[in-house]
């Protein structure tokens, strides 16, 4: 999926949002925004949006001399979601369709995204998503693949959201004969995306059996880039491939046989999916 012209002002908004979040110094904020605008002007726009976003946020980290400027927010969101864990687990166990409820909760968690929207209400979103109609619903295909498969590759997205991913994966392990789960995390910090450290913090390593692999955050030696041949080889090791969030959809939508779970949080993604902003999606490519 290539960058749309409407993505460019969105990247500028992300940069200014990040700058204001990280520092109160307006001179530094201006420096960050100017450097990001220069990067956008000098970069070819026939790339995919995640690559451009990675470049934007690399500039932010460099200018404020912080490897993980969102670390406190990430921990806060993980803590908030973990406080809801027991209640949400009971909700899944008591549901008429535990699988569908777990899917919906995993998608609801996708609202926690500082790249697309810093203003969100997780409780309100959960209530809405539990009742909301899917714009695209390939959940039947997902169940069928899980019934036949024994290995899962699962690409996570954001902190906080990963707690609801954990609930979804626990439900899958209870319902299907899965022998191994490989979880893809960011190889280094970018916005509020989940790293291995974050995954361990919320207990994703307690799933049995599980292993982790890293995906690039745009910096050297942080893992393969989305869409790269190396990442494709990793994905192909899974009988079932599940991908969370808009960024992963943007970077992997041209690859076949992936189940994308996301909330359409911008007009470009919504249009690409023939959906509306705010729609919930479970799409098989």
TrEMBL record:
InterPro entries: ARMT-1-like_metal-bd_sf (IPR036075), ARMT1-like_metal-bd (IPR002791), PH1575-like (IPR014444). Residues 6-280 form the Damage-control phosphatase ARMT1-like metal-binding domain. Keywords: Coiled coil. Residues 78-105 form a coiled coil. It comes from the Archaea. This is ATP-grasp domain fused to redox center. It comes from Methanohalarchaeum thermophilum.
């Amino acid at each position: 999926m290539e960058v749309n012209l409407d993505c460019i002002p969105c990247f500028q908004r992300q940069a200014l949002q990040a700058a204001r979040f990280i520092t109160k110094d307006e001179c530094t904020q201006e420096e960050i925004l100017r450097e990001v605008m220069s990067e956008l002007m000098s970069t070819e726009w026939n790339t995919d949006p995640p690559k451009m976003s990675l470049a934007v946020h690399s500039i932010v980290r460099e200018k404020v001399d912080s490897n993980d400027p969102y670390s406190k927010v990430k921990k806060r969101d993980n803590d908030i979601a973990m406080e809801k864990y027991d209640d949400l687990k009971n909700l899944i166990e008591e549901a008429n369709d535990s699988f569908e409820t777990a899917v919906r909760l995993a998608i609801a968690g996708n609202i926690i995204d500082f790249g697309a929207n810093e203003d969100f209400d997780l409780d309100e979103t959960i209530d809405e998503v539990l009742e909301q109609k899917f714009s695209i619903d390939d959940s039947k295909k997902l169940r069928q693949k899980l019934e036949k498969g024994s290995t899962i590759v699962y690409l996570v997205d954001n902190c906080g959201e990963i707690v609801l991913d954990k609930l979804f994966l626990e439900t899958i392990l209870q319902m299907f004969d899965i022998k191994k789960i490989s979880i893809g995390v960011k190889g280094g910090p970018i916005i509020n995306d989940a790293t291995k450290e974050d995954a361990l913090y919320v207990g994703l390593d307690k799933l049995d059996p599980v292993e982790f692999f890293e995906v690039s955050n745009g910096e050297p030696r942080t893992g393969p880039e989305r869409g790269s041949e190396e990442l494709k080889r990793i994905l192909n090791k899974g009988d079932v491939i599940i991908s969370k969030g808009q960024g992963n959809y943007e970077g992997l939508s041209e690859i076949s046989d992936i189940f994308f779970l996301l909330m359409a949080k911008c007009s470009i993604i919504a249009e690409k999916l023939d959906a509306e902003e705010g729609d919930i999606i479970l799409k098989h490519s």
